[in-house]
Amino acid sequence: MISIDIEKKLKAYKGQQVLKIAAQFTVGSITKIYGPSGAGKTTFLKIIAGLIDPEKGKITIGDTLWLDTAANFSLSPQKRKVGFVFQNYALFPNMTVQQHLEYATDDALWIKRLLEIGKLETFTEHKPEYLSGGQQQRLAILRAMAIKPQLLLMDEPFSALDPKMKSEIIPELKLLWGELGTTTLIVSHNPQELEGLAELELYIENQ
Amino acid sequence: MATFFTFDLAMDLTPIWLTLKLASITTLVLLLIGLPLAYWLSKGRSIVKIILEAIITMPLVLPPSVLGFYLLLAFSPQHGIGKWLHEIFNIQFVFSFQGLILASIIYSMPFMIGPIKSALQQLPLSLSQASYTLGKTERQTFIKVLLPNIRSSVLTAVILTFAHTLGEFGVVLMIGGNIPNVTRVASIAVYDSVENMDYHAANVYSLILFSITFIMVISVFVFNKYKAKSPLE
Predict the structure, then answer these.
(1) What element of type H or E holds A66?
(2) Calpha distance B179→B185 (Å, rounded)
(3) Kind of pairing, strands A15-25 and A2-12?
(4) Distance CA B126, CA B145 (A)
(5) Is the sign of the CA dihedral A87, A91, A93, A98 positive or negative?
(6) Model pLDDT for residues B114-173, shown as the tens digit of each residue
(7) Which residues are paired to A68 by β-bridges?
(8) Which candidate, B111, B131, B149, places its Cα nearest to that of B33?
(9) Best mutation site among B127, B133, B137, B140 for testing chain A: the one with the most A CBs within 10 Å?
(10) For the ranges A104-118, A124-138, B30-44, B163-177, which has the lowest average pLDDT?
(11) pTM across the whole model
(12) What is d(CA B98, CA B18) in angstroms, rounded to the nearest whole number?
């Protein structure tokens, strides 16, 4: 069980608002996170990944404590090692597709399989600037999957994919998550996008 | 007029070699100091960082003679740190080549730190965040992700630092004086030659300095593939 209880002040147009979330996710589940812009969906994912510290909170993953502000304890993002798909992809401009995946893992067979799933086998020597938006987004997903994460956090991961590509890649990813037992949290603006994929929902509202 | 532009092979070129040696050592030392320092300064703000940045920037606005004067006082073998260094380690910075290196490092520091820090701040934060989530340390992230993506700025910083050190005059004169084969660098030699009415020597030194500097500035544009609008960006 993944247990999250956090509180974080957010800067908003009209003063401050508070992001306050208490939720539990079963291992291996897929959850859709949605809500209005500026509600703190991305911040929520970054807090879980250890990239942003909340004012108050506790995060436990099974028996492992990741965050406990009361005890002044926060596990580094390197040790949490969650898969993270950034909304802006955050691809490394200096690396080719192959180098992105090799930076994340030494497992050549795993890289080969990921490239097949993302349909990027013929683009291994391309740098991000020579990839289309959809290809870049797929690479961002593959890079996050390269570390075989127990927890995968995805911020608008399918927004640049065309419907055909989406319908091909999503079942493949679901298969992978099932194999690895990955718990997946997906932020999406499009409520229809994750139909049939997400089993759970979390609504984050402006507070 | 014909002799004005002729190049005398028997002419003493030691000031040029000393200048190139000074610029090379200064640039190398500043690169080693500048990369981690610029990285640290680029991350967040604090009062300590603001004060340190102001100190690093001071040589840009301070008259070189003022900086040279204070360095001369600080490292004089008769007082304070200079006396201590001389007595304990037998190191003398005043009127020595080591002194020129120290002064050049301080004087040229903003030219190394500025472009690197600015380039690091312009990189999206998510690049390092993505690297951390892959389990990479800050050091690995800096070497494998950040540094390769600011290559052109590092090159600009290196060339500007080198070129700026070539042209130092005030600080160098104050702390190094004008000792032939030791501290008489090209800029001092130009001044000295003019003082002695030797315009031919002044012209040769000047022309060599001008050519080297011009080639270096041009190379910034070439290596940056015409991306930079100005070498100062």
Answers:
(1) strand A64-68
(2) 9
(3) antiparallel
(4) 11
(5) negative
(6) 999 999 999 999 999 999 999 999 999 999 999 999 998 999 999 999 999 998 899 999
(7) A58, A73
(8) B111
(9) B133
(10) B163-177
(11) 0.87
(12) 12
The residue type found at B189 is A
pLDDT digits (tens, 9 = 90+) for B87-123: 888 888 889 999 999 999 999 999 999 999 999 999 9
- H-run or E-run covering A107: none
B134 interface with A at CB cutoff 8 Å: yes
Residue identified by tokens 């080639």 is: B215
Per CB-CB distance under 8 Å, the chain B contacts of A42 are none
Q: Is B77 exposed, middle or buried (0-12, 13-18, 19+ CB in 10 A)?
A: middle
Q: Say what the pLDDT of residue B97 is.
A: 94
Q: Name A22's bridge partners.
A: A5
Instruction: Please say whether the beta carbons of A128 and A93 come within 8 A.
Output: yes
- Is the Cβ of B132 closer than 8 Å to some Cβ of chain A? yes
B129 touches chain A (CB under 8 A): yes
Number of Cβ atoms within 10 Å of the Cβ of B27: 25
Look up residue A10 and give its DSSP letter. Answer: E
Amino acid at B71: L
The torsion region of residue A189 among left (phi > 0), alpha (psi -120 to 50) and beta comes to alpha
Chain B closest CA to A70's CA: distance in Å?
24
Cα of first residue to Cα of last residue in chain A, in angstroms, is 27
Crossing angle (nearest 10°) for helices B151-166 and B14-42: 140
Report CA B192 to chain centroid distance, whole Å.
Answer: 23
Decide: helix, strand or coil at residue A186.
Answer: strand
Q: What is the 8-class DSSP label of residue A39?
A: S
Residue (of A4, A86, A90) closest to A46 by Cα position: A86
Distance CA B88, CA B176 (A): 21
d(CA B157, CA B163): 10
- Taking the C-alpha atoms of residue A113 and residue A146, their distance in angstroms, rounded to an integer, is 10
**Residue linked to tokens 């993944």:** A2
C-beta atoms of B130 and A49 within 8 A: no
Under 8 Å CB-to-CB from A140, ≥6 apart: which residues?
A85, A86, A89, A90, A91, A157
